[in-house]
Design goal:
mainly alpha; three-stranded antiparallel sheet; 3 strands; globular
Amino acid sequence: MNVRKMRLNEAPAVHSSEDRDEYEKDYARLIQSPAFRRLQGKSQVFGAGSGDYYRTRLTHSLEVSQIAREVARRLAKNEPFLARREHPGLALDPEVVEIASLAHDIGHPPFGHKGEEVLNRHMLREFGQKFEGNAQNFRILMFLEKRAGSDSGLDLTAAVLLAVNKYPYCIDDEGRLKGVYRSEWEGIAHLRQLWGMPEGIATLEAQLMDLSDDIAYSTHDLEDGMRAGKIQMNRSFFEDDRVIRSLMTEIENDSTNRGMEWEGVDLYGMIKRVLSQYLEEWERIYEENGREASRARREIKARWVGRFASRVGLLDDPARGWKRVTFIRDGQRDLELLRTMEILKKLAWVTLIHDFRVQRLHKRSEVMIGRLWDSFKDYGSGRLIVPPDWLENYESNRGRWPWERLAADYLSGMTDAYAEKVYAEFFASRSGSIYERD
């Protein structure tokens, strides 16, 4: 049995072509799913619908998948270790990484991270349950999405499911902030045990998907920030001490990047140097492109993507008895480049997310999600206002999922625009016809 291509709940191949590879079937199942299509209406940084030029969760996911697939293809050619297939978790199939990258944000709710934060706050405070976007990925892939002949989500292969699982933990265990809900963790843990995966270790494909996401975030979101005028490409902005201090605070307070060994680094000096080098490169590219800002933005983004992607490689990780996907220079982990990427990620964060106009949008979305949650959270009243197929889904799974989890599923599956539409139906004085189709 090929454990990479096995499926947890293999359903009959209803109208399925048998001449396709299993990963080709996974790709088709994912991109033709309603949950994937809805990513086009979910915020990346700017609200979906803010403008044709800005990224949504869908375009972001497509860009992550392109980076991940190309890096996987290069590594498969150049890393003899991968050809030996020593372990199912120590493989890098470009198709698997591509599919996982397309699916990596499928569980994010409307209104970006603010929507996730608000739903988690309400679920924890009122029901002692967590809501988290990565865990919600598996709710969708393993349960909520439906395909012909299956009641178990999209029935994706083990390789793809574990490639999406960058946080290989049960989120319901004490102290865990990210992971997989217990209801889906049982299946994921079974696959990991079957593969012989070390505890708490992600597959190479999950690691590459995660790093490709960071590459996209640190380059593409900056391009959107420049386009919106939030990141001003001049010395007064890039040398502003307030910007540098804000970046320092974000890095120092972020517990997820402790592995970059910031201790002993002159953080202020490094941030200042990275920003200065970035601006100098922009000035050269701007001149090379005839002082045309649009072309210059695309070019600087492309160069940084190429710079990061070309340095991705594999290293032994003796402390964990595994392999690590990371930036490499002269056979060693390139901490300098990893820290540079982190600084650019935080630059996008402090200039875009902390902008007062974006914060106003967040406040608005916080109010909307909160009031919608109050409308749907109780079974007695909520069952009267959810679509019939959702109520039917709940009734057929009584005992497996509490009502509040299904309410969170329903709200998190909304696009930004649909959440606004339902909110208007409930709380605006007038909102079109009740016969508009959902």
